[in-house]
Write a structure and sequence with these properties.
With about 240 residues, this protein is α+β, with helices and mostly antiparallel strands. It is about 40% helix and about 10% strand. Strands 1-2 form a two-stranded antiparallel ribbon. A two-stranded antiparallel ribbon has the order 3-4. Strands 5-6 form a two-stranded parallel sheet. The termini are far apart.
Length: about 240
């Protein structure tokens, strides 16, 4: 609990919370009210706590303060990092990697696209991502790219909600794109492209947790792991 933390640990947790709140679009003077990019109040429930103030139940790791508590697939929680991969659809080679200590994926689509361009020297023909990468701001930022961007607006298998095109024009455009036959056809292949390398990393390499500590070291470890699975993949294809 935050009230039982030492002053350095509490300061670290507060700094993490300020960074998380900023990433979510909050500001120090928002007075707990959701606001738009111009600072004007908008509809929505007020925030339960002030900007940068952690919950009393929030925790921090003494062995790896850069890690964050994230929800696991089994429903539990643990100190983790959020690892990213961009995979090509022809050979399932990982062409770009990323790693952050933020559980949300939606801020990672633009950096991962940039990483692909830096590694390959060109944009992909098509970018396909699941609903975790959905964001009006992200869609706006990627709207001018000379390639097709397909991001699911709702969870797979669930009914698509209606989007207010006046408030969220780029999200509404994405929803329309995703309901087209072409959008559905390309999106259906997403799992078969990106998920196998993740499974190979766990099952073939036996890699299920990081050995190093600290954001930069863990990034380096993740790059090595992805390089290793790429080499095995290329050897199998030879």
């Amino acid at each position: 609990h935050t009230k039982n933390l030492t002053p350095p640990a509490k300061a670290r947790l507060e700094a993490q919370q300020r960074a998380d709140d900023t990433a979510r679009g909050r500001s120090e003077d928002d007075q707990r009210s959701p606001r738009d990019g111009d600072g004007k109040r908008k509809r929505g429930r007020p925030y339960k706590r002030d900007f940068g103030v952690p919950e009393d139940t929030d925790q921090t790791s003494f062995t790896d303060p850069h890690s964050r508590i994230m929800k696991q697939t089994n429903g539990g929680f643990d100190h983790c990092y959020n690892a990213q991969t961009a995979v090509d659809d022809a050979h399932q080679i990982i062409v770009a990697t990323g790693l952050t200590n933020c559980a949300a994926d939606n801020a990672q689509l633009a950096p991962m696209t940039e990483a692909v361009v830096n590694n390959l020297g060109q944009l992909p023909e098509r970018i396909v991502a699941d609903t975790g990468y959905r964001s009006e701001a992200v869609f706006e930022a990627l709207a001018k790219l000379p390639c097709q961007v397909l991001v699911s607006i709702g969870r797979e298998g669930r009914r698509q909600v209606k989007i207010d095109s006046k408030k969220y024009p780029h999200t509404a455009q994405m929803a329309e794109r995703m309901t087209s036959d072409e959008g559905q056809r390309h999106y259906r292949r997403r799992k078969a492209i990106v998920e196998p390398p993740n499974g190979w990393i766990k099952s073939v390499l036996g890699f299920r947790q990081f050995s190093l500590r600290g954001l930069e070291k863990v990034k380096a470890e993740w790059n090595l792991v992805c390089l290793a699975i790429n080499l095995r993949r290329m050897a199998a294809m030879a």
